[in-house]
Amino acid sequence: MESKNExxxxxxxxxxxxxxxxxxxxxxxxxxxxxxDGGIRFLEITYSASGAVxxxxxxxxxxxxxxxxxxxxxxxQGRFSPRSRCV
Length: 87
Description:
By secondary structure, the protein is α/β, with parallel strands linked by helices. The protein contains three helices and four strands. The chain has helices at residues 4-14, 25-37, 55-68, and strands spanning 18-20, 42-45, 73-76, 79-80.
């Protein structure tokens, strides 16, 4: 696992974090893969303030992405998932 300082250095180098909000789970994996294929390495999935998507559904989506696309750095409300790895 990368250290906090290594993650910060990579963010400063890449200069882009994509924030995903309200995207249906069935589209999330393909979207994340397309972003990765396009060079995006950091993805934040936010919880729904409106309640349109439950916190449980958001957590399940994050877990699915972390398992399926371990090369993408996922974060929850700005905190990186401890299970994720970055390439």
